[in-house]
Design a protein that fits this description.
Number of strands: 0
Low-confidence stretches: none
Largest sheet: none
Strand content: under 5%
Shape: globular
Distance between the termini: 25 Å
Order of helices and strands: HHHHHHHHHH
Number of helices: 10
Radius of gyration: 17 Å
Amino acid sequence: MSFSWDILLLVLGGGFLSGFIDSIAGGGGLIALPVLLALQIPPHYAIGTNKFAATFGAAVSSYQFFKAGKVDMHLLYRLMPFTLGGAIIGCLFMLHLSAETLQPLVILSLIAAAVFVFTRRGLGQHSSYTGMTQKTFWQGAAFALVIGLYDGFIGPGTGTFLIIAFAMLGFDFVVAAGNAKILNLVSNITAFVLFIISGKVLYVYGLVMALGIFLGAFFGSRMAIRHGSGFVRFVMMAVTTVLIGKLLLEYIGVI
């Protein structure tokens, strides 16, 4: 494959926008993956390269939220094994099932999530989380396992689902986004390792995109922390709407 400067700049720019959006509301794969596919990269290599690059962005975002004190590590340490287990199970399912099998369910789930957030104006605006109880732990464990499985199997919208899940547990949208990035990093690393082992990473594109995602995630996470829950909610709903539209158009065969 050729690596002309205009192509590398396209990959860098796509990575920046992807990292910026993903660090705030999830859904960065909506941007990064189509950029790689547009370069005629085979799908498995495009997915592997995207996961390789996205892992660096997730690490940057996680660090920014952690440094600002916008994560609850007491809860997250206990949820990480469930996310890891779910991601591994999801990757194993991916080897035997078609993603199209779950696509209608994914679309309906996103629509339900969007309606839920739109109709619950107070969701995520203020924190009502008072600490981990047995109930919140098991609710969080269920979210972490199922969403981790989904990320390992398909992926689009994982960060958005996690943000909504943490908001439902009582976190404001900024801390929910921080928690989501930590768990998303766990599932990304799982896929990252599996794709490297399987040899499905194009490292030149991956490193250039990783640089773009790194920079985008740095600025995006700082903006989310600075502007607060209302800003995160707005970006998240915009990303969710675009994601629903994209999946619907793919499902009916328009794109």
